[in-house]
Structure formats: structure tokens, C-alpha cells
Amino acid sequence: MTDSGIQSFFERLQGKAHQAASRLADQHVKLAVTGLSGAGKTAFITSLVNQLLESTGSANLPFFTVSKESRLIGAKRVTQPDLRLARFAYEQGMDALNAELPSWPTPTRGVSQIRLHLRYKPGQGVSKYLFDQSTLILDILDYPGEWLLDLPLLGMDYAQWSAFCVKQMQEGARVSLSEPFRAALQEMKWLGQGDELKLQGLATLFRQYLAECKQQGLELIQPGRFVLPGELEGAPVLQFVPYIANQTDIDWQSLPAGSNLALLVDRYNEYRSKVVKPFYKAYFSDLDRQIVLVDCLSALNRGEQAFDELQQAINWILKSFDYGKNSLLRRMFSPRIDKLIFAASKADHVTPDQHDNLIRLLESMVHSARQDMQYQGVKLQTTALAAIRASQVGQTLYQGQRLSVLTGHGLQGETLTLYPGDVPSRRPAPTFWQKQGFEFPQFAPPARDPLTALPHIRMDQMLEFLLGDKLV
């Protein structure tokens, strides 16, 4: 080994030792920001970083105890722990938000990471008397929401996944959207000699079907890399399709070697073992805290099938994480998520009197998952927040009555003043979708002084719940 190689080895060893010491002292938090595409993960992380960096200045954080008590000395961004990952584009996101015509940060197209050091004065316990200050390490990962839906594939073999896809294609808008793909399969010789060009063409049609489902606002898009392939664009590992025929006619244990079906099974298994599993083990197996962002309002806008798929997707994804109380040994070697917030994002897109309904709607969507986590000892909270508040609340007279309305700007810069409607407090009845009385808007970010913290709704309460106990 060369001198530089030896130095690199010891630097990595030193980094791991430092991380282990931080975990042992309970001064290291890995935060999972979980949400499907469009839930607002990148905007949320940008705002979270901004609130912490501005916490000793212009940030408005009355419910964040360490800030309220003036014990938070400051926050600093440091080099992310995994140098193979991209640097989270915080500065580029802030540039977009601070532009003359503000725009939202660019959605994530790959995996990126950010690490913050939070320096604070201990407020209680032995540390208050032994140390003038302490430092909490906070790691956050950003990734495409599309890839998140691949995690449940780890518990499904090819036949099970195919059966799930067949069932999906028989439901609602998916029937017509899948028709070109299903028609192309009519001449498929599943047990015939493998034809890679044929499979490539079918995979292209399957990807088109999934992309159209995404455009229609449907949420259960699997495999996720088919609509956002990243570095795997064009790779054979993304060229497989579900088996759509009578499964009772197939002996899955003795498929003809080299047949089309055998190739599809091999590629599906390769996708799970070489793409999904490493992604899960690298980023989702040692988390401490979690926030699950759910865009309930967009799902309500898009209709019954989109809403139901969102609910199923969120509950399905949550089964991929490890929850429970953290002991000292677990924190060192196999940490679990011991605190979790379910957050309805974009709370600034409805009037404040609808926030309680929005929270209850989200609670109804994750009811079963909440029960399971509470049984495992996880501390839970459900809230509605806006990582970057884009609207203001005003008043108007309508038919002689004073009505709360939202004011702001649309994505093209136009002025908006509207009442978006009432939020249902639980999954709406089928008749609801036939006479929707609302359309939740899309607001542009607000124009503001670039030297001030981003406006928000309840980000301070989120910080207190997820990090407050680590900053005492």
C-alpha cells in the first residue's frame, strides 16, 4: 500500500471512530426525510438548513427550545461523510428562492447528502456543569422520491411483483394507460428463446406506461428507476417487464434456460440485489429520526385513484424502515427510528382554519402504521407544515359574510387571491369525488429579503420534536 493509501485508510478509520464516539455520546442524528415525488423533500431540507443557519439571527423559531433559550450558539455546514455522494444543492436552492422572480429549488435527480454541526450550550444534566458547549452532528440525505417505492420490492419475488402489476392494470385510469403495453404482450413467447431486442422494446412500452401514470398523478409507480433511471439509463438491468399470463401454467423452479421469462426473472432479481438492496443498506438501515412528508392536497386535486394510491404507497413504504426504542448498544451498532413525524406538507395552500382537518386527514391515512409504531415504542406526532410559506391569509366579504382567503403569486408571477375550499377530515366518500368543491392552488415562493430566514409554518415545532431532546 502506498503512503497516500495508508494515510487515506487511517483517515477513514479515524472518521469511523469519531462517528462511533458521537453515537455513543448520543450526539449524532441521522434524519430520514421521507416522501414521494412532489411531496416537497428538497424544499423542506433547504428550509431546515436555512432555519438552523439563521437560528441566531432572523429565524422565527419560538417553539424550538434551544433557540428560544438562546443556548444555540450556531450551525455550520461541514463536508458530508460520504465523499462519493453529491453535495446537497443548498446554495443553488437558495439562489432560486432569492431570485428577482423566485422559483422552487430543482427537484432531486440523484442522491445527495448534507451534514450540519449544531453547537449549543447544555441546559441541564451533568453536561451543563462539565462543558461550556457541545456539538450535535446532523446528517440528512436527499434522494428522488421515485426510488423510494423500490424498497418494497425487496419483499417480493418476480411472480409476486408481476401479479401486483396485473392487478394494478385492471384499476381505473390504468386500464386505458396500460392498453398499448398489454397489446404488445399478446405475441410474447414467454418460454421461447430469449430475444433481447424484443425485451428492450417491451421495456420501453412499460416505461412509457409508468411515465403516463406519473403524469396522471398516480403514486404507485414501480420500479421507480424506470421513470427516473439516473446513471442506469439504457442498462439491461432496467429492461424487464411483468409476466402477464396465467401463472398456474408456469413452473417457476424450472424455467427453460435462456428463455424470455428466465431472462426477465434474472433481470428483476439483479435489479433487486444490485440496485435496490445496496441503496437500502447504504442509506436506510441506520436511521435515528424520520419525518414523512405527504402531499395530501395534490392527491385530493387529482381524484380518488390518486388519493388511494398515495395512501397505499405511504403505508407500504413505512414497512421498509426499522422502528423501535434505541438502547445504548442499538445506537452504536443497529440504530432504530425512535421518533417520527407525519407531516402534511404545503399547509400554506389552505387557510389556517383547515389545518386541523388536514392533520386529521393525514392521521386517517396512516392509522394502521401509527398503531404498529406506537406498539414498538416509537414517539409519534402528526402535523401540517409549510417548509417555505408561499401565501398570506387575508379577509374578503362573500354574500355578506367575512371569509378567510389566501393571497400570493402563481408560478407565472400572477397575483392570486382565492379560497381553496374545505379539507375533508378523513378519506372522502365516493360521492365526494363526483362534486369536488375545491382546487388547491400552486403558489410560487414569496419575494423576500435574501438576508432573512425563509418564512415557514411549524418548522420550529418540527425541530423541537425531532432534535429538542438531543440539545438539552
Describe this structure in words.
The protein is α/β, with parallel strands linked by helices and 472 residues long. Helix content is 39%, strand content 15%. The protein has 18 helices and 11 strands. It has helices at residues 3-24, 41-53, 65-68, 90-97, 127-130, 145-148, 158-168, 174-177, 179-184, 196-215, 260-283, 296-302, 304-318, 328-333, 355-365, 367-375, 430-434, 459-467; strands at 28-34, 72-78, 86-87, 112-120, 134-142, 289-294, 339-344, 379-384, 392-398, 401-409, 415-418. Strands 1, 2, 3, 4, 5, 6, 7 and 8 form an 8-stranded mixed β-sheet that branches. Strands 9-10-11 form a 3-stranded antiparallel β-sheet, with no helix packed on it. It is globular and about 70 Å long.
CATH topology of the largest domain: Rossmann fold
How big a fraction of the residues is strand?
Answer: 15-25%
What would you report as the Rg, rounded to the nearest angstrom? 24 Å
What is the H-and-E element order?
Answer: HEHHEEHEHEHHHHHHEHHHEHHEEEEHH
Global outline: globular
Query: Sheet bearing the most strands, described?
Result: 8 strands, mixed
Under CATH at level 1, the class of the largest domain stands as Alpha Beta
Coarse structural class: alpha/beta
Q: How many separate helices?
A: 18
